[in-house]
Amino acid sequence: MHSTPSSSRSASPDMVDTMQIFINTVSGSSMPHIPSSPSQQSQEQEQELTPSAAIPITVPSDLSIQNLTTLLSVRTSLPESDLRLVHAGKHLSPSSTLADYHIARDSTLHLALPLRGGMPPKKIRCTYKDCKEGAQRIIGDCGFCNGHYCGKHRLLEDHKCDGLEDCKKESHDRNAAQLNAERTQVIKGI
Q1: What residue spans carry the region label Disordered (predicted)?
Q2: 35 and 75, same structural domain?
Q3: Are residue 67 and residue 107 in the same domain, yes or no?
Q4: Per-residue pLDDT reduced to its tens digit, 121-161
Q5: Residue, of 190 and 137, whose pLDDT is higher
């Protein structure tokens, strides 16, 4: 077996210009976190004081922000679309590189996570022309036109559904099949 003098992992720093940067996680919350016990409060204070909150990572200086976000996504188990990198108060564009922002060795980037909480979900309104009422859950959903309707417009005839004719034909066919299945058979020869 022959061995190569240098592999891609053990390349000298002259061949591959790498640098170590630190990623500091910044997460926001719309609700303040209140610890449930004094011991939990002391543990949280210790976590905040330890420098382990910053993630050290060694990367090439010409690495794109998109690739760095992908690496961080794998490392933090968070979706790539939720991660935003900030350096010197600027959000970093995925199409640019670390060198474009003059990010040097031992720089600290901030990883901004999305806020939890926020606005409550918007109430679904009736989709009939000028109706402003709230749509009824489950029974207000029309399976033929995919609309959401209030109690006044939930019937197919009331909201003039496009699938009304199809619905009537389907109902007629279903009733005809039921009647044919229940038809009494005449037995001859009795």
Answers
A1: 27-50
A2: yes
A3: yes
A4: 788 999 998 999 999 988 889 888 889 999 999 888 888 88
A5: 137
Q: How far apart are CA 80 and CA 98, in angstroms?
A: 18
Two tokens, residue 23 = 């990623």
pLDDT in tens, 163-186: 888 888 888 999 999 999 988 888
Report the phi/psi class of residue 188: left, alpha or beta, with left for phi > 0 and alpha for psi in -120 to 50. Answer: beta
Calpha distance 105→59 (Å, rounded): 10
Same domain, 107 and 126: no
